[in-house]
Write a structure and sequence with these properties.
Largest sheet: 6 strands, antiparallel
Distance between the termini: 71 Å
Number of strands: 41
Structural class: alpha+beta
Strand content: 25-35%
CATH topology of one domain: Monooxygenase
Strand order of the largest sheet: 36-37-38-39-41-40
Shape: globular
Length: 806
């Protein structure tokens, strides 16, 4: 299409364009004041007196969003013939292709007239121009495509890294993964370790430190942990079921209790024994013998196993050696239930008493009497002991003074099950009902009805309660409102009594007297599939108990009529570990698409690994030898600060390690009081405080510091600049670009800090030049070079003691 213009003598009137199409026909596009085109996605133009054209440095630097907000800089660009004007106004972002044809003289003349107009006249001309183009949508689209790039801005790239991460933390993982494929800058920012750590912690995803199938694909350790978690969810939900591993040893006796901690399985039976099985080897490590009656209950913590028996005793075992450490006597009938809290165990017996014991010393601490029938279930949170009994009551005790706080009455039959979250007590009874109680007031908050028989098992997560009943159904409740959210039944329900339920990830796992284990969606209540089905299912096979972790399912199975042998069955759903790669390689390839969005990121650096028990040894990944690492791992940092502390003690220096809490990593602290420099007018003393803390976002050490007068008042940034300008031996180092004030990550107080990006660059240079060879030298070199710029006294003897002088 060819275009030309007919200029108007009146500069305030927009000239008329004549457009010639390929057929040679001409169209006269005259202004039509009756038309007022308004884009449905644009707001009306405002006053035309506030117009700005972006500078050549960045065309999309402006945040204005309408034509009326553009302003031509007339002081610099008076005419179209000015080359700088053409460079500023005609250049467009690379995404928009400009017309390479030279403008005709009439167009140049009109532009010259336009530049000479007043601001109001320009606005009127633009309005008329848009109205003139309204009859041809292709011209409006062309105009839009030309203008839009001027208002686009990559805010993630332009914002400071901390603010960009603050914005990104509101995105879910799938959106982060898609955004990481936008460009390299976004990929690098979104691959931030701290961003993925917070995402994992918000979803209670555990850090995975074992080798896994994603090691060569994802370098960010927390992002790799998230990928493993998503892979695990897929395996529970849709993945190929893992191969069942069988543990046999109780012959044809019933397995009455089951414990599982991820590494060991402990099964107790009415054959008077307990067996400890190794998950890794599949072998029976120990058989615990000593009870003279069937084992009816057990608990496990660390390396101790506690068991209760029909012989009226409680035994404490060492899981490593199989030795019986204590035999706790006192009950006069079968020990029916146990509850473990730290070093204390609470036992309930058919003698109607509750007793508290110290499992380390074997001492009996308290005896709580008050029930008039067998105690069937107990709970303990360190403050309250809650017991349910066949006398239809639940009792709440404070064991230290043997005080009975509440007697909760309301059930009309035996109480068989309890759950307790330190605020709510939930009780299940043979009267077909479930009751929710407030532990402080002792009032019944809700009476949950709907089951038709005994509630055999319950589990509570937050305000969501899952109950399994002998009526073959599973129900999901909200204990805050008292409503039943879902009843897990239908054609896929259990064919007989539900024996146990457990919440795993976002699923409910249930076992039944029908010999099956089923998995359901916790949020929707939908049936997903059968996880296991015994060969004798429906004809005598029974799954008595189940125990789950996020990665594995353990079942205790057998039969009541000898149609199924007694055994423990393990299903390991964690296909991400290297140990399981060979066995599950086929299923991995089919299910890896669930984490595909997470895997399509380029590795930014390869973290070396260190043996944390050996402070002087560093081991690197041979496959990453061709890459230049730009950071330190957390283990390397912790090893290095321990090394510096040892040298500090040897040299009589003042470095100390602070280990604040389990949720924060240890860090180095250096405090010193010095007189102001002689170049300063003041002769008073100042207190310097330096903290060397690991920065997870950059995977490098970071210095936080404050300088204060002896009265505690902090120096301002200007005062610190004047103070350190005399100590700085590197004049090229710009303190304003290096120092920033931010909140201390542990103390939550304002501190000045050296920005970690400089550390990352320095470490890269040191490693590339082969100056340093282990993590201890990394930290020493960094403190020597950067510390002097902020007045940190770091003597050369540290490098000499480490075997190399810098």
């Amino acid at each position: 299409m060819m275009c030309s213009t007919i200029s108007s003598s009146n500069p305030s009137i927009l000239p008329t364009f004549t457009c010639e199409n390929t057929t040679g026909e001409c169209q006269i596009l005259t202004p039509d004041t009756s038309l007022c085109p308004k884009s449905p996605t644009k707001r009306p133009c405002r006053d035309q007196s506030e117009l700005v054209v972006n500078k050549t440095k960045r065309l999309c630097n402006s945040t204005r969003t309408s034509f009326s907000e553009l302003r031509v800089d007339e002081t610099k660009h008076k005419t179209i013939d000015n080359p700088s004007y053409r460079q500023t106004t005609i250049s467009t972002p690379s995404t928009v292709t400009s017309n390479s044809k030279k403008p005709s003289p009439s167009i140049l003349e009109w532009l010259s007239q336009f530049n000479q107009m007043a601001s109001d006249d320009r606005t009127s001309a633009i309005d008329l121009f848009i109205k003139n183009c309204s009859s041809d949508t292709s011209q409006l689209k062309y105009l839009r495509n030309k203008i839009e790039p001027y208002f686009q801005r990559d805010f993630i790239r332009d914002l400071p890294r901390e603010l960009a991460l603050q914005v990104l933390r509101y995105l879910v993982a799938s959106d982060l993964s898609r955004a990481s494929r936008t460009c390299r800058v976004w990929n690098e920012i979104i691959n931030d370790v701290l961003l993925w750590k917070r995402l994992c912690q918000n979803q209670q995803i555990q850090y995975k430190d074992k080798p896994c199938i994603f090691d060569n694909l994802i370098t960010n350790p927390w992002k790799r942990s998230y990928a493993c978690y998503q892979h695990l969810i897929h395996t529970w939900n849709k993945g190929q079921l893992p191969h069942s591993r069988y543990f046999r040893g109780h012959e044809d006796f019933v397995i009455t209790c089951l414990q599982f901690d991820g590494k060991r399985i402990v099964s107790g039976s009415d054959d008077n024994t307990l067996k400890i099985w190794s998950v890794e080897t599949g072998e029976c490590e120990k058989t615990l013998t000593g009870h003279n009656g069937g084992v009816w209950c057990s608990e496990m913590t660390d390396n101790l196993v506690v068991s209760g028996s029909t012989d009226r005793t409680i035994r404490v075992w060492d899981a490593e050696t199989g030795e019986c450490k204590h035999v706790l006597y006192g009950h006069t009938s079968t020990v029916r239930c146990l509850a473990l809290y730290k070093d204390f165990v609470v036992s309930g017996s058919r003698d109607a008493t509750v007793r508290i014991w110290n499992i380390i010393t074997g001492e009996r601490l308290h005896t709580l009497a008050g029930h008039t029938a067998a105690v069937r279930c107990v709970c303990y949170n360190g403050k309250y002991v809650v017991s349910g009994a066949y006398d239809h009551t639940i009792r709440v005790w404070i064991p230290e003074n043997k005080r009975l706080v509440h007697v909760l009455e309301g059930h009309t039959n035996r109480v068989y099950s309890l759950v307790f979250d330190s605020k709510h007590i939930v009780s299940g009874s043979l009267d077909c009902s479930i009751r929710v109680w407030d532990v402080e007031s002792g009032t019944c908050l809700h009476h949950l009805t709907g089951h038709l028989s005994l509630t055999s098992g319950m589990q509570l997560r937050g305000n969501i309660l899952v109950s399994g009943n002998a009526d073959s159904t599973v129900k999901i409740w909200d204990i805050e409102s008292g409503k039943c959210l879902h009843t897990l039944s239908g054609r896929n329900k259990h064919l007989s009594a539900v024996t146990w339920v457990q919440i795993v990830l976002n699923y409910v796992v249930s076992s039944g007297d029908d010999g099956t284990v089923k998995i359901w969606n916790l949020e929707t209540g939908d049936f997903i599939r059968n996880l296991m089905e015994l060969e004798s299912a429906g004809s005598g096979g029974v799954v008595w108990r189940i125990k789950c972790t996020n990665s594995a399912l353990v079942c205790a199975a057998g039969s009541r009529n000898s149609t199924e042998d007694t055994k423990v069955i393990l299903l390991d759903f964690d296909r991400t570990t290297s140990l399981n790669n060979d066995e599950n390689s086929n299923s991995n390839s089919s299910s890896m698409s669930t984490t595909g969005a997470i895997l399509t990121t380029n590795p930014l650096h390869k973290n070396d690994r260190i043996n944390s028990d050996d402070e002087m040894s560093v081991t690197t990944n041979p496959s990453a030898s061709s890459l230049i690492p730009m950071s330190l791992t957390l283990n390397e940092f912790q090893s290095a600060i321990r090394f510096i502390q040892k040298l500090s003690q040897k040299l009589g220096d003042h470095w100390q390690i602070v280990d604040p809490s389990p949720i924060h990593y240890p860090y180095l602290v250096y405090k010193i009081v010095q007189k102001r420099s002689n170049k300063q007018e003041k002769e008073d003393y100042l207190q310097y405080e330096y903290h060397v803390i690991y920065n997870e976002s950059y995977s490098v050490p970071m210095i936080y510091f404050n300088v204060s007068n002896l009265n505690g008042s902090l120096l301002s940034l200007k005062e610190i600049w004047e103070l350190f300008s005399y100590n700085n031996s590197s004049p090229s180092l710009n303190m304003y670009e290096t120092i920033t004030q931010q909140e201390h990550p542990v103390l939550n107080r304002p501190f000045y800090a050296l920005h970690p990006c400089h550390t990352e660059k320095l470490l890269k240079q040191l490693i590339a030049s082969n100056i340093v060879q282990n993590s201890n030298q990394y930290l020493i070199a960094w403190l020597s070079l950067f510390g002097q710029s902020i007045g940190l006294p770091f003597i050369p003897n540290y490098a000499i003691e480490n075997g190399k002088s810098y």
